[in-house]
Every structure is written in structure tokens, then in C-alpha cells.
């Protein structure tokens, strides 16, 4: 390799020695190709792929947790933008990561395709003649018997065939080989790797994935505007390619462990849906469960999570209803202490906002308000309220899970910050005649994911073939064995020798066994 | 027996197994220490003479075994078998107590994975006379179990809904057994490096410690290491690249999501693919390949422990 490099350096420099052939563009390309498709390069690329994948597990990833990425950018003012430039927030889609696996892919194709021809030739080839000096081989035995040469060779051939060798007779010797399938397995492995990679690439080009939170009783139609977040491959047209199904979440039931050390752990989730695969299709129902997704026109709907949505009515100081309905609260712990906000920006004379917790099984003691069980055994709303001056509508999108308190003032009561607890059906009149809030009841919401990953079955088939090929490649031992006889002083001298092509695996034992069979022949 | 009796039985069996493994570890330590102390004047001459020969397969091991080392080794192996029985019973009762497969959290995965290490070792012990690996294997198992009992313990209980899938059974058992193979393979590779170095020095006339003379030739150790890896790698491929994504597809709605655990499983896979390539690449086979195997084992270990403790993701088990 260094030799070639030197030659290139010499060839391209103006005062290069004239006796060296100039490589030229073609030569240079050929050299690059040969380097790229060498196994050493594959090895190096494999290690680079492994190393390259690591930062993605240490640094928050946009595709996995966009909120963490935002947090990271917030706290690391210098490092953040640098990471961003290097693509470290989206490692697996970054240019450099793609470059590594594309090179590996090309290297793989370049090294497998030519070997196919070599393999086909090898499959048709006959076991070779014995080398001159059998005793130089890794496995070697020699002994004399009384049988004549032909009998010995016949016995040896029978035994070798029994051991599934392919046998070829030569003058006074036989050559035998087995394990042709090992190379086939190896090729199958590498080919299937290509197939699997194509399947994966196909999926990431043409696939999509989105999540949406749907409150029980509400419906969802599969269009881009309905999603809370959505990603799709570059070849997917999200405006037109989404299958036009619609669904309604009619009910959601969760059961939880009632006792024992894991009390409160979730046991079953079930979301009862009705859906229409197309706008004018028939309405059907489905029980959506974890590990039991709904398949619709190539897309799949999953149940990812659930939570509570308290139903609240807010009346303002003028007696008008300023907010009414369920507001999804987000679970903060395993017992579903759920945080959320209620906004009534249209309330007059002051706007109103509330934030706090919905506790499905409330316990309020010295540890503070919290839920002690995930099911709704003792639901309670524990909140605080704010008021502010009516603001111009800015049109800026705002999170429905956060209250912008910069222009709001917290209500006070008896000189203390206002804090209130409501059970279903209870109301609170706000101080200063600002209005009232009523806890009407609650319902649940489910988080659904809709996705389409084409090519998944191609990838799966590739992986399964890959394993089969791998096993053939790793467990089949290719081996050559030779038996040669010559007559000396009326007795037959037998030489048995063999060669493991690949890691050595007890060839001595096998030769010994073959030798024994030949010697037994003598006693009969 | 009801589930809480089974659970407390398991809680008794696992620490007991840990203690027995630890005693086995002590026995193997004595074995190696005894090997180091054997007077080795006479043998050195033989070895220096033999060192020049082309193949040092099975050198003078058989001729001058240190009796004490041999006894200690045998005690270690017997204790390991006893500990394995206790360990297996502990894992079994844990599973029965929880009414499911015993690998739903870090504690359970630790006790099951270390059982897999012990199983791979004992099977290989029978087929390949692997007792020379006893020190390393008992060290790893006792360490893992100790960590599980002291740091990861959670009471037995049922699983989260996303873990209810027979793909979980397949995925984790394949990964655990492959992990057992990687562990035994990594230890063998480490011993290979030590022995190969001693053999190289022996050809330069430096004496080989008797403890090392007791273990097989480097080439034989290398063959064992390869065999275990060749067994573990397809299993790992199946466990983390087929069964895992299928399960994730049903449970989380995506086959592959670059979750830290997934990333590190892939890194592990790539490193071991590198190992197999290294063995077929001139200039890499032997010493460098062995280093790759050891690196692979550390990556596996990090994936198993580090990722759960240090990095967050979907795979963060409940209850740790
Ligand atoms: C992601 C990539 C790859 C993986 C996981 C992989 C895996 C493997 C495995 C497991 C073996 C069997 C080793 C053995 O028989 O001991 C092997 C052999 C081989 N690989 Fe790859 N490979 C990959 C890429 C490549 C590439 C890109 C090339 C070509 C440049 C390549 C060339 C070879 C060759 C020539 C062998 C034959 C070794 C032999 O027959 O002993 N591999 N590969």
C-alpha cells in the first residue's frame, strides 16, 4: 500500500522519476476504488461508524427529545451553536454520519459483487491435487498397512464421502474438500446487509411519523395541521400523501396494580376507538392497546400514553363564560400528579389564568399536595389563579401547557397567595369579583402516534437472511483433506493430511479418525 | 408456595449464590497464587529449549502441575457449579414470584445475565476444559451479583404494559446469552494476550511463570475465544437487530429510534463485526483482534450498566 502511495506522489510531482508509470486519473480512481473496497477500509469504516454513533447517545437529539435540545441550547450559549453547526443535535441525519455509512455501503457493494464471480467459480471447481509435501500441512499422519493401494483409497474415499467431502481421484491419491457453503453464507450475509440497508433507507425517505394528544370524546383526522409534532422523510409529501382516515376516541380505561410492592404500576391500557379508513368508508371500532396498534392503509396508529383532562368552567367578572371544557394536564410522576394550565384571555374586566395540579388520588399533608395512586380514587384540583390586563392578540403561538406569567399578577387572599382545592362539582368565587372557576369533572386523554415506515419488511427480511448467512459463514468449516498412498517393500504407506481454511478446528482429530478407518480396513 | 414466599426465597438464594461465587473466586485466586510460587528452575530449561520450536501447543503443563493449584482449581469449579445451582434457583423463584420472565428491570437483568455468563462458562467448561478461565468468570459473576444485590435491588412485581410481549422474552434472553458469550470471550481474549506475551518472552529466553504454564497455549485460547464470539455474535444480531426492533415496533410505534440503548447495542454489534473482520485481516489477527474483543466487551458492559445509569431514554427501566 505504501508502495502505491509513493508511486502516486512520484507520479504527480513535476520532477518524478521517469521510469515510474504515471497513474493518471483512471489509475488513481482504480487505486481509490481498490482501497475503498479492501477489508481494512471496511474495518476502519466500521469503527468510524461505531464512534460516530456515540455522540448521538450523549447529546440530546432533535429527533428523540426536541425539548432537551432547546434546554441545551439555552444553557450552553457557546457550545450549543457549535454543536448545531457540527450536526450533533441530529447526528444520525448529519452529513458526516451519512458519509461514513455511504462509504461503507459502497465499500460493501464493491467488495461483495466481485466476490460473487470468484465464489461461483470456486463452487464448480474440483478438490485440488495434493501438494508435494503433505507433511508440511497443519494436520498430517502417516502409517503403513498391508492392504493394497486401491483398497486403501477406496476405503478413504468412502469415509471422506461419509464425512460429506467432495472427492476427486488423482493418480495414487485423492483430494477432498468440503464447506463450500461457508463462502456462500458469507456472501449471503453481506448481500443481505445491503438489502437491509436499502430497506431502512427506503423507510426514512418515504416514511412519516407524528404524534397527537386526543381527549376522550374528541376526534382526529389524519392531516398535517392536527398533529402536535410531525416528521417525515424528504420524499414524503405531507400535504397530499397522508391517508385520509379519521378516528374518534370514545373511551379510555387503565387498570393499575392495587396492592403489593408495585402498587400503582400500570397493568392494562385500552382506548376504544371508532374509525373510518376513508371519509366515506364504513365506521368500524377497535380496541387500541399497547403492543396492539391499529393498521390503516399503510399507516399504523399506536397508543403511546395517557393522562387526565379536568373539565373546568371559568366565568369572568361580567358573568360570561370565558373558558369551558377539558384541558389536558401532563402527568409529572408515576401516580399521575398532573400539571396543567387553564387560560381565559377573553375574560373581562381582567383576563384570567390558572395553573396547578390535577391529582387523581389526592393526598395533601406535610409533603405537599400529590397523587398517591394513578387511578381516579379521590380526584382533586389544586391550583392557583392569576389576573392581568387584557392584551392585544399577538398571534404568536403559545404552549397550551404553560402560562406566560410575565404580565400576570397572582390573586391574593387574606394577604396570602391564593391557593384553592376543588373536588368535582365544586366552585370557587375569585377575589375582587373577578369571576369564578368550577371543576365540572374530568375525562382522560390519550397520546397517539401515527406513522408509516415503508421498507420495514424488506429490512426485516434482509436481517433474517443476514443471520442465516452469518451462521453458515461462522459455523461451516471449510477443509481440504488429501490421502496419498505409495507401495514400499510390499506394504502400503498411507499419508493423510489436511488443511483448515479458516480458524483451525480440531483437524488432527478428524485425520486420526480417518486413519483409524483405513487401518481397520486392514484387519477385516 | 405463594408469590411472596417465592420472592423471599429468591432473596435468600441470590445473596447465598453471591457468597459461594465469591468463595469460588478465592479458590481460583489461590490457584493462580500457588502457580506463581512453584519453584521453576528445572522447568525453565525445558521451556527455553522448547521455546524455539515452532508450535508451543500444550507445553509442559501436564508434566509438572502444581498440586495445590490443581486442587484449588477443582475446588473453585465445584463451588462454581454449586453457586450456579443456587443462582439458577434464585432466578427461577424470582420469575415465579413475579409471574413472568425474570428480566423486567435492572436487578433482574443483572441476575439473569450473570446466570447466562455462568451457563456459557459451565457448558464450555465441559466441552473445552475451560477451568483456566475460572478466576475471571467468577470475578465477573460475583461482581455483577454483588452490585445487583446491593445497588439495583427492587422487590418482585409485574411489568409495565409496554413490557408485555413475548418479543421481550426473545429479545432479552438472546441479548443475555450473547452477553454471557461476550463476557467469556472477552476474558479468554484477555488471557490470550497475557499468555501470548509470555510465550513471546519465552522465546527470548525469559522464564514463563508456572501459573501461566498451566493454561493452554495462546493459539488454543485464541481458538476458544473465537468459538465463543462466533456463537454470541449471531445471537446478538438476532437479539438486538431483529427481536428488539420488532418489539419496539409494537410497543413504541417505531422499530428503531436511536434511543441511547439502541445506539450502544448497535455500537456493540459494529465492534464485534470489526472483531470478526479483524480476525480475517492480515496484520490484525491475533493481538489486535483480541484487543477489539476486549473493547467490545467494555462497550457491551457500558450498554448494560452505564446507559441505564447515566443516559436517559425509553429503555430506562422502572424501579431503578
Ligand atoms: C457493516 C459492515 C460489515 C459487517 C457487519 C461484516 C461482517 C462480516 C463477518 C461477520 C464476516 C465473517 C468473518 C469470518 O468469517 O471470520 C465477514 C467477512 C468478510 N467481510 Fe465483512 N462485513 C461488513 C462489511 C464488509 C465490507 C464493507 C467489506 C468489504 C470491503 C467486507 C469484507 C469481508 C470479507 C472479504 C470477509 C471474508 C473473510 C473471510 O472469509 O474469512 N465486509 N464480514
Automatic annotation (TrEMBL), chain A:
Pfam families: ResB (PF05140)
Major subcellular location class: membrane
Keywords: Cytochrome c-type biogenesis, Membrane, Transmembrane, Transmembrane helix
Subcellular location: Membrane
Membrane topology: Multi-pass membrane protein
Transmembrane segments: 42-59, 95-120, 187-208, 456-476
Superkingdom per UniProt: Bacteria
Gene Ontology annotations for the cellular component aspect, listed alphabetically: membrane
The ResB-like domain, residue ranges: 39-512
One GO BP annotation of this record: cytochrome complex assembly
Name of the protein: Cytochrome c biogenesis protein ResB
TrEMBL record, chain B:
Keywords carried by this UniProt record: Cytochrome c-type biogenesis, Membrane, Transmembrane, Transmembrane helix
A molecular-function term among this protein's GO annotations: heme binding
Xref: InterPro entries: Cyt_c_assembly, Cyt_c_biogenesis_CcsA, Cyt_c_biogenesis_CcsA/CcmC
UniProt superkingdom: Bacteria
GO biological process: cytochrome complex assembly
Entry membrane topology: Multi-pass membrane protein
Gene Ontology cellular-component annotations: plasma membrane
Pfam families (UniProt xref): Cytochrom_C_asm
Every Cytochrome c assembly protein domain range: 103-315
Subcellular locations according to the entry: Membrane
Transmembrane segments: 12-34, 75-97, 109-125, 132-154, 166-194, 231-250, 262-278, 290-311
Protein name: C-type cytochrome biogenesis protein CcsB
Source species of the chain: Kribbella antibiotica
Taxonomic classification: Bacteria, Bacillati, Actinomycetota, Actinomycetes, Propionibacteriales
Gene: ccsB
Amino acid at each position: 500500500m505504501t508502495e502505491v502511495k509513493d508511486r502516486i506522489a512520484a507520479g504527480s510531482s513535476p520532477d518524478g522519476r521517469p521510469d515510474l508509470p504515471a497513474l493518471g486519473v483512471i489509475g488513481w480512481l482504480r487505486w481509490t476504488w481498490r482501497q475503498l473496497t479492501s477489508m481494512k477500509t471496511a474495518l476502519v469504516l466500521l469503527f468510524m461508524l461505531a464512534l460516530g454513533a456515540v455522540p448521538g447517545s450523549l447529546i440530546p437529539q432533535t429527533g428523540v427529545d426536541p425539548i432537551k435540545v432547546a434546554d441545551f441550547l439555552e444553557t450552553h450559549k457557546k457550545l450549543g451553536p457549535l454543536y448545531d453547526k457540527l450536526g450533533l443535535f441530529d447526528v444520525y441525519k448529519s452529513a458526516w454520519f451519512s458519509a461514513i455509512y455511504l462509504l461503507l455501503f459502497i465499500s460493501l457493494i464493491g467488495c461483495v459483487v466481485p466476490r460473487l464471480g470468484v465464489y461461483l467459480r470456486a463452487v464448480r471447481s474440483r478438490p485440488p491435487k495434493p501438494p508435494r509435501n503433505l507433511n508440511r500441512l497443519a494436520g498430517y499422519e502417516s502409517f503403513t498397512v498391508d492392504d493394497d493401494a486401491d483398497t486403501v483409497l477406496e476405503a478413504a474415499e468412502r469415509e471422506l464421502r461419509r464425512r460429506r467431502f467432495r472427492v476427486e481421484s488423482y493418480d495414487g491419491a485423492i483430494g477432498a474438500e468440503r464447506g463450500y457453503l461457508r463462502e456462500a453464507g458469507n456472501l449471503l450475509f453481506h448481500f443481505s446487509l445491503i438489502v437491509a440497508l436499502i430497506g431502512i433507507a427506503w423507510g426514512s425517505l418515504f416514511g412519516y411519523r407524528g404524534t397527537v394528544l386526543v381527549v376522550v370524546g374528541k376526534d382526529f383526522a389524519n392531516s398535517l395541521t392536527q398533529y402536535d409534532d410531525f416528521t417525515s422523510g424528504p420524499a414524503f409529501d405531507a400535504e397530499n400523501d397522508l391517508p385520509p382516515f379519521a378516528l374518534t376516541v370514545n373511551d379510555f380505561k387503565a387498570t393499575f396494580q392495587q396492592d403489593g410492592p408495585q402498587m400503582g404500576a400500570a397493568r392494562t391500557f385500552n382506548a376504544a376507538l371508532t374509525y373510518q379508513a376513508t371519509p366515506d368508508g364504513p365506521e368500524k371500532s377497535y380496541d387500541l392497546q399497547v403492543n396492539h396498534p391499529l393498521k390503516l392503509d399503510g399507516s399504523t396508529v399506536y397508543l403511546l400514553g395517557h393522562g387526565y383532562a379536568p373539565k373546568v368552567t371559568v366565568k369572568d367578572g361580567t358573568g360570561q363564560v370565558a373558558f369551558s371544557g377539558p384541558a389536558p394536564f401532563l402527568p409529572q410522576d408515576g401516580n399521575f400528579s398532573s400539571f396543567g394550565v387553564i387560560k381565559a384571555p377573553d375574560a373581562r374586566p381582567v383576563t384570567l389564568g390558572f395553573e396547578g395540579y390535577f391529582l387523581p388520588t389526592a393526598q395533601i399533608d406535610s409533603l405537599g399536595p400529590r397523587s398517591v395512586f394513578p387511578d381516579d380514587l379521590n380526584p382533586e384540583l389544586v391550583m392557583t389563579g392569576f389576573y392581568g390586563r387584557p392584551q392585544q392578540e399577538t398571534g404568536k403561538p403559545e404552549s397550551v401547557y404553560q402560562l406566560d406569567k410575565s404580565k400576570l399578577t397572582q390573586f391574593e387572599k387574606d394577604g396570602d397567595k391564593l391557593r384553592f382545592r376543588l373536588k368535582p362539582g365544586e366552585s370557587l368565587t375569585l377575589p375582587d369579583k373577578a369571576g369564578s372557576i368550577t371543576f365540572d369533572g374530568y375525562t382522560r386523554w390519550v397520546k397517539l402516534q401515527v406513522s408509516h415506515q415503508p421498507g420495514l419488511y424488506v429490512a426485516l427480511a434482509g436481517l433474517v437472511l443476514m443471520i442465516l448467512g452469518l451462521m453458515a459463514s461462522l459455523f461451516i468449516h471449510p477443509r481440504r483433506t488429501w490421502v496419498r498412498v505409495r507401495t514400499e517393500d510390499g506394504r502400503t504407506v498411507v499419508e493423510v493430511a489436511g488443511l483448515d481454511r479458516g480458524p483451525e478446528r480440531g483437524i488432527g482429530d478428524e485425520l486420526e479418525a480417518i486413519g483409524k478407518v483405513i487401518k481397520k480396513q486392514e484387519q477385516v | 408456595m405463594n408469590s411472596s414466599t417465592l420472592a423471599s426465597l429468591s432473596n435468600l438464594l441470590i445473596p447465598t449464590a453471591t457468597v459461594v461465587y465469591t468463595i469460588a473466586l478465592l479458590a481460583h485466586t489461590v490457584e493462580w497464587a500457588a502457580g506463581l510460587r512453584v519453584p521453576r528452575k528445572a522447568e525453565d530449561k525445558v521451556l527455553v529449549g522448547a521455546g524455539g520450536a515452532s508450535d508451543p501447543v500444550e507445553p509442559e503443563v501436564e508434566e509438572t502441575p502444581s498440586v495445590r493449584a490443581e486442587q484449588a482449581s477443582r475446588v473453585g469449579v465445584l463451588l462454581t457449579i454449586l453457586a450456579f445451582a443456587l443462582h439458577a434457583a434464585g432466578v427461577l423463584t424470582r420469575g415465579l414470584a413475579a409471574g413472568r420472565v425474570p428480566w423486567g428491570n435492572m436487578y433482574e437483568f443483572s441476575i439473569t445475565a450473570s446466570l447466562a455468563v455462568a451457563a456459557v462458562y459451565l457448558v464450555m467448561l465441559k466441552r473445552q476444559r475451560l477451568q483456566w478461565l475460572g478466576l475471571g468468570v467468577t470475578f465477573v459473576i460475583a461482581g455483577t451479583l454483588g452490585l445487583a444485590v446491593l445497588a439495583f435491588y427492587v422487590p418482585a412485581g409485574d411489568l409495565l404494559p409496554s413490557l408485555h410481549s413475548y418479543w421481550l422474552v426473545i429479545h432479552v434472553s438472546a441479548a443475555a446469552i450473547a452477553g454471557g458469550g461476550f463476557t467469556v470471550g472477552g476474558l479468554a481474549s484477555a488471557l490470550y494476550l497475557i499468555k501470548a506475551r509470555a510465550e513471546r518472552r519465552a522465546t527470548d529466553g525469559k522464564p514463563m511463570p508456572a501459573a501461566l504454564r498451566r493454561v493452554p497455549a495462546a493459539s488454543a485460547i485464541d481458538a476458544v475465544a473465537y468459538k465463543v464470539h462466533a456463537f454470541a455474535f449471531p445471537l446478538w444480531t438476532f437479539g438486538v437487530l431483529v427481536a428488539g426492533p420488532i418489539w419496539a415496533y409494537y410497543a413504541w410505534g417505531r422499530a428503531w429510534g436511536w434511543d441511547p440503548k439502541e445506539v450502544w447495542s448497535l455500537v456493540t454489534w459494529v465492534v464485534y463485526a470489526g472483531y470478526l473482520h479483524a480476525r480475517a485481516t492480515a496484520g490484525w489477527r491475533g493481538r489486535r483482534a483480541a484487543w477489539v474483543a476486549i473493547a467490545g466487551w467494555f462497550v457491551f458492559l457500558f450498554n448494560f450498566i452505564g446507559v441505564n445509569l447515566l443516559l436517559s431514554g425509553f429503555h430506562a427501566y422502572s424501579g431503578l
